[in-house]
Amino acid sequence: MRASVGDQIRVHGRVVGLGERHGEIVEVRGEDGRPPYLVRFSDGHEGLMFPGPDCEVESRTGTE
Question: What are the residue boundaries of the DUF1918 domain, all occurrences included (predicted)?
Fold first, then answer.
């Protein structure tokens, strides 16, 4: 997985009833766009992420 600052990330809920979480990548700490990513979620929470198979990155240009 590769991302850039400004890309959107979606984390799919893994438990029934738990919705998706949406956030914006504010910092890429890995080399060549690789994780970890500092993400600001829609609720204002920020956290360092190593995305798993339940995550999708949407490029701000519309291409992955």
Answer: 1-57
Asked if residue 10 lies in contact with residue 21, where contact means CB atoms within 8 angstroms, the answer is: yes
Are the beta carbons of 63 and 15 closer than 8 angstroms?
no
**Do the beta carbons of residue 29 and residue 37 sit within 8 Å?**
yes
Nearest to 9 by CA among 30, 37, 45: 37
Q: What is the pTM of this model?
A: 0.82
